[in-house]
Amino acid sequence: MQSEVILQADKIGKYFYDPEKFRVLNDISFTVNQGEFVTLVGKSGSGKSTLLYILSTMDTEYDGTLSIHNQQITGMKQNSLAALRNEKIGFVFQFHYLLPEFSCLRNVMIPALRLGRYSRKEIEERAYEKLKMLGLEDQALKLSAKLSGGQQQRVAIARALINDPLIIMGDEPTGNLDSKNTGIVFDILQDLAHNYHQTIVAVTHDNDFAHRSDRTIEMQDGHIITTQKQF
Ligand SMILES: Nc1ncnc2c1ncn2[C@@H]1O[C@H](COP(=O)(O)OP(=O)(O)OP(=O)(O)O)[C@@H](O)[C@H]1O
Questions:
Q1: Does the beta carbon of 222 sit less than 6 angstroms from any atom of ligand 1?
Q2: Under CATH, domain 5-229 is a member of which superfamily?
Q3: CA 116, 34, 69: angle at the middle one, nearest 5?
């Protein structure tokens, strides 16, 4: 069965001024299919975060075109983009950005409350389901600040999943974790991709993490230099 294309970047380019104009991304083209777990790697300064920011629809100043699930994103108005982002993209960052005064359940509910598609009761049930999927059902009512770093990152993954996003974007999702928790978070992401067809694109500096993903896209000086399947 042919997988659907979830993300398509076509000749993405970007300039910064520092203070002279310089090209930070040049002619970046690739596609990501449903259920693929792709990592973006490359030396510091190669343009990974800049690219992820564009792919996440947060930066709209670039050349080329970006499509998500065959919908052209480039040129969309900011308010439509914000709605699309909340509904279709889940984010997992290096730092979990959970609200410490709220329970884990409440933290996970937030993007769904913002989306406004489900009743509060349904949202609560969905949030509980996602926490259960990540082995955190016993922690649901605890304050997020009371959890360990690894558990907090799993709550952040549950929050990223609450609206059943088309794609999860990770910006160093294990950058703040020890090796044991890195392994746990990697296994969760891989399970989501392989068993739930969740599409994932993550920037990482962790070679081991990258080598275990389905495909690495390596960047150098704003170009893609290799894109290789991992076996
Ligand atoms: N807002 C900005 N204004 C000017 N230059 C910038 C800006 N943001 C990033 N840069 C420059 O663009 C280049 C790419 O930066 P980027 O953060 O995308 O790299 P990266 O590969 O993610 O690096 P790291 O691995 O260190 O996070 C670098 O030379 C950086 O200094």
A1: no
A2: P-loop containing nucleotide triphosphate hydrolases (3.40.50.300)
A3: 55
